[in-house]
Amino acid sequence: MSKIIFDSGISLDGFFAGNGRSPKNPMGGVSGQIHSWMFNQKAFWEYLGFEGGKEDGPDGKFIRETIERTGAFIMGKRMFEEGEASWPNDLYKADVYVLTHEKREPWVQEGTTTFYFINDGIESALDKARKSAKGKDIRIQGGANTIQQFLNAGLVDEFFIHIAPVFLESGIRLFEGINKDKYNLQILEVIPSELTTHLKYKLTKK
């Protein structure tokens, strides 16, 4: 049965993205600071369809496992708009459901990625993603506000965060406005690494 998960990098002071996000400035320009561990891995560049990366170690294994377990994605309009102009074709290799007020026909890419534009809320997107995932997990890709909506609705089963050893001081916090009484949280795994610390949590609704 599909689990609802998210997998996000944050700074040590809890920021998911910087200020001034736009298609010309994705993530507010802090992606290199938060995701340097990922950019260092060959598994990440393989996923994009390019050669790159210096290492193929435990971090890369983590990336491959997360990719393998994911059968569908959900994201917000802002994240989609930031990536639309620059993402390579067939990046997600699965159906992607974009939460938006914009009416738009599905964007069918060459390969196995199709973007669907959902105008009637997170429950509708989740229902459609479950059918697409065919038993694999559904990944709430971002941004932070979209993840927060799913958390506060009590819909998340597991999450993974990768804490980069940097302070950003300002930006968009991943866990801003979260209902602290919604879940019991259990640490499933802690994996230290040179450029990040991987934490895996299980969530059970109270």
TrEMBL record:
GO BP annotations listed: riboflavin biosynthetic process
InterPro entries noted in UniProt: DHFR-like_dom_sf, RibDG_C, Riboflavin_Biosynth_HTPR
Residues covered by the Bacterial bifunctional deaminase-reductase C-terminal domain: 3-189
GO MF annotation, one: 5-amino-6-(5-phosphoribosylamino)uracil reductase activity
Protein name (Swiss-Prot/TrEMBL): Dihydrofolate reductase
